[in-house]
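Curious: why this fold?
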Amino acid sequence: MSAPARPGASRLCRLDLWLNPVFDRIIGETPGISLSVLPARGDDARTLAGLRTAHAYHVSAAKDELPRQWFVTADLIRQCPELVCVSSGGAGYDTVDVAACTAAGIAVVNQAGGNAASVAEHTYALLLAVQRRVVESHLRLRHDTGFSREDLMGHEIHGAVIGLVGLGQIGTRVARIAQGFGLRVLAHDPLLDAETIRARGAEPVGLDRLLAESDFVSLHCPLDASTRGLFDARAFAAMKSGAVFISTARGGIHDEAALYDALRAGHLRGAGLDVWQQEPPARDAPLLGLANVVATFHTAGVTHEARRNVARSSAMQLAAMLRGERPPQLVNPEVWPIASRRIADLT
């Protein structure tokens, strides 16, 4: 439900997709902002009319849940001349064309860190489920008889090497947790210098060395031009024989067909996958048919705590921007001088 617009108030819109209620509460308690909740489906004319007059837009980061017409594209931006602030409802911003926003003088924020604890925990949930064959054991107990415990024998993770591709807020938490499991941590992150990587609990290495030495390879990098298709057949072939691949990052960074081939051939021991090219994947997706794959539906960051953190972060950053304050998680910081002037002109 939308509140009636207050004269002189900044106009903030979001769609009626599920959002933790803390978002509406914070915005409702913030003077000078009127919130409109618009239908994601069923009344495109009403939604477009609302966005055309919006100053700020909170947009879902879920690319396969948000209808395409409400992605923040150059086309939508052309129809929304008053838009000055966009907030992606997650650490990712696949539904936002950041370059188009920057060209139009629109500040974009994400919620990096809001779900970092949840995603880091899920990384180990997947890794342990693969190594200890948790899903296989569960299914056999439900459906089979006449098997022994040794038929389900798994492997410890203690004393192994975990290689992290990306060492941002999530990767750093994964590295910290690794110490408790007795893991040696390697990390490759071209955005960080060696001193920073060491300070975050990992040994800096190039990607080739990481693949060659790691017993487990876990992805924590964004999906962009430099990482799309990064894990292809060559990368999987370069991993240690018997290694495990984990991704809680983004679908599209790894080639699903190439991963399937590496698993079927026995080169890799298993995989834990939370992200997919298409979400959810088709029920007959080849990877879902492998016993050594543990799959989840992009739920690594979908906990009650993480969703509340992300909603609060988004509301607070939008409120700050509409007051003319620079937010902490600007995706396009170079646009802030222009965006701040546009925001000042709203008052």
User: Anything to note?
Assistant: The chain has a mean pLDDT of 95.
